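Input chain follows. Return structure tokens only.
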Amino acid sequence: MPADAMGERFGRGQLPRLLYRLGRSEATGIVTIVADRARAEVLVLRRGSLCADDARAGIARLARLAAIEAGTVTFDGGVNAHPPVPAARTVPLAAWARHHLEAQLDATRAEELTALLAGARLSIRAELVPPTAMLDEADRRIVAAMAQPRRLDQLWPLARTPRFRLLCFLHFLRQVGGLVEEGVGSGPQRAPLDPERAAAAQVLGLGAFEDRDAIKRAYRRLARALHPDLQPGIGAPRRRELEARLAEVTAAASTLLG
């Protein structure tokens, strides 16, 4: 089982990443999730699957836990805590995490992700490639194309899959820590950026040593994708989310161009 799932603090949206790793490693044992100021939740795992009264109830429970703002997750591995149960009463965690994370991507977030990944060379961490049983033919083409670092515009023709489908897969990989993003022009011979500028470059989805024109292009792409006035009909919560994200990328661009 992944060492980083033992006694680890997590924030909003981070729990699916930990559960994915437990599912992928086919962990058996007890997961204890303690949300801040709430009672502990105990999940029983057998070979990477959640044991539940029925699969539908298990999925609903995982979705509720995934919305926790902050807490601690602890895994007690090697415990055969549950006898074998029918497949109808289990939820494979790796497959659940992928479905849950891919469902987060809408058209707006897809455009934002495209802008974030523009120019980066993308590949997959071998230890976090989804299990073979989770991959269909399109997935296998994507994984094969990412066997070596490639830009997004190079991946699409090799993957031979709709753009949104590819972006969903990349979003999922990114959220579980399986996506390697290498910035263009960042070689070992270059002196590293100071931490503030490095963080700003990451916010804009850039490599460490992009020129001013590349920074401006990345900012313009993100600003178009995030500006709430360009998205009529959105609700107040989504508007606030976009405004906060736009302020973040504006500050990052200012740091890099200042």
